Structures are given as structure tokens and as C-alpha cells.
Amino acid sequence: MMMKKWQRNAPCWCGSGKKYKMCHEAFDERILSYEKKGRIVPDRSLIKSEKDIEGIKKSAVINMTVLDEIGEKIHAGMNTQEIDDIVATTTAKMGGIPADLNYEGYPKNVCTSINDQVCHGIPSKDVILKDGDIINVDCSTILDGYFSDSSRMFMIGDVDPEWKKLVEVTKECMEIGIKNVIPWHFMGDMGHAVHQHALDNGYNVVKEIGGHGCGLEFHEDPFVSYVSKPGTEMLMVPGMVFTIEPMVNMGTDKIFIDEDNGWTVYTDDGLPSAQWEVEVLVTETGCEVLCS
Ligand code: MF3
Ligand code: CO
């Protein structure tokens, strides 16, 4: 979208209170130069203000506290409804709202995806964690209208070394993603680096589901792919906030959705899948992890 020209002496659109010419004018011109070359660039709605960033960070404190608590309490024999209960109770105690609940009709407070479940596993008292399981707990919080989103893997008891490796390499994929968030580079540079590390280890990355802008809404533009090509996708600029959340499959990247609940995504071959998620802010020099 073409950006509106801003009056040079008017207060900057970012809300800093500074004159536009002393604030985001050069930034806008730099973005415009990429847009003229036909590149995908973010519009102003995707650039977070200082106030927005503070709000997202406060929301993230709750999200990370909830995941810490789950990390302390998770064990074999526990059912995944108990995980949902921790999310509900702790989030409420800290003044937040679980973002998942009722999101497009989602019935629970959190996603708990075990083994061959790629994502959107629905907590249930009938799903009991057992020794050797790997589970992703994907948690999202709203506080004062600001969204935070992150997920972690947990290994239950004695996990097969091959499965442990999948969990560890997937974490490395996320970390490589973080290192490759560089302002004025492209999302595709980052996505490609993530993908390459998975491929180097013989794994495959899910294509259809990816990350997203996040902060003022749960899911904002852009869609963040981890199978993208260098130099493609949206330009990364300071002030953008998005998630890095690759879903890495030990076997095929083919997936299917549970027909009964309409949510849970599985690997087509029944082999395990892992995912780690962080929410990052693009800075002048790289990125800052806001939620992990
Ligand atoms: N937390 C997920 C994400 O990382 C979204 C879950 S949506 C839900 O984007 F409805 F399934 F909860
Ligand atoms: Co997310």
C-alpha cells in the first residue's frame, strides 16, 4: 500500500511527539525506495509505537509466567485439561485473558499438541501424558488489548533420542530465525535460514501454517513462512513485531486436520512434529525477543 505523505513539521505518525522530519521521514523514504522496486513492504499499521511495545511486553510477562509454571508442573500421568486449567487460573490471577479461548470458536485456553500433532491440539481430561511423549504448549495472552504469543516443547520422562533431537533441532531453527531477523533484510532471508537448518538435519518444515504479525491483534500481517526464499517476502523494518514459530516434522511435511474437531493438525505419516515459538520486535540492529 502506498504511504501517505506526511507534513514535515507535523508531529510524527508514530506518536513520539517529535516532528516528522526529525523522526520517521528518512525511514518512510527508505521503505518507499523498496516499494518502488516492487518489493513487499509493511504499511504503517504494522509499525509498533513505544507505547505498543510496552503493552506487548507486559502481556508477555503473563504469557511467560504461565509457560514457566507449566514447565514446573508438567509430568507423566497429568491430563492436558490440567494444563488448560493452569493457563486459565494464572492468566486470570495476573489480570490477563487467554487469547485462544473463543478465537474463531476455539474451545480451550491453550493448545497442547502431542507427538504427531503438529499444532492446535485441544486440551482434554481424556488425554493423559505418558513417558516418552513430546508436547508443545502454545500459549497466548491479551492484556489491555495487547497480544503476546509463544510456545515451548516439553519432554515427558524418558524420550527416544531421535525425538529429543527433533525437539532440540527445532529449537535451533527458532534461534537461527532470531539471528536472521535483521532490519532492511527480507522475511524470506530469515525463513530460508530456518528451513535450511531443518533440511540439514533430514527434517521437513510445514508450509501451510506459519507465523504472523502480532501485538494489536492476535494474527496480523505478514504471514511468516519458514520455507521461503532469500530476498523474497516482506521487508523487515524496525518496529515490526511478529512470531517465529516453525513446525518441524521428522518425516513428511504433509499434514491433515482432524475432521471431528476441525482444529487439530496431524502429520500425515504419523511421525512426530515439534515447534517452538517466540514473538520478536525488529530493532535498529537486529531483534529483541518480547515473548518466549
Ligand atoms: N497460538 C497459535 C499461534 O501461534 C494460535 C492458536 S489459535 C487457537 O498462532 F485458536 F487454536 F488457539
Ligand atoms: Co503464533
Write the layout of secondary structure elements.
Elements: H1 25-36, H2 50-73, H3 80-93, E1 97-98, E2 111-114, E3 117-119, E4 134-143, E5 146-155, H4 161-179, H5 187-200, E6 204-205, E7 211-213, E8 220-224, E9 241-244, E10 247-249, E11 255-257, E12 265-267, E13 273-275, E14 278-282, E15 287-291
Antiparallel strand pairs: 1-4, 2-4, 3-12, 4-5, 6-10, 7-8, 9-14, 10-13, 11-12, 14-15
Helix pairs in contact: 2-3, 4-5
The structure holds 2-amino-4-trifluoromethylsulfanyl-butyric acid (MF3) and cobalt (II) ion.
2-amino-4-trifluoromethylsulfanyl-butyric acid binds at residues 100, 103-104, 106, 111, 120, 138, 140, 149, 243, 245, 277.
List keywords for this structure.
292 residues; 3-stranded antiparallel β-sheet; 4-stranded antiparallel β-sheet; single chain; 5 helices; binds 2-amino-4-trifluoromethylsulfanyl-butyric acid; alpha+beta; binds cobalt (II) ion
Please describe what this structure looks like.
The chain has 292 residues and is α+β, with helices and mostly antiparallel strands. It is 28% helix and 22% strand. The chain is built from 5 helices and 15 strands. Strands 1, 2, 4 and 5 form a 4-stranded antiparallel β-sheet that branches. A hairpin with a 7-residue loop joins β11 (255-257) and β12. α2 (50-73) crosses α3 (80-93) and α4 (161-179) runs antiparallel to α5. The two termini are 31 Å apart. The mean pLDDT is 97.
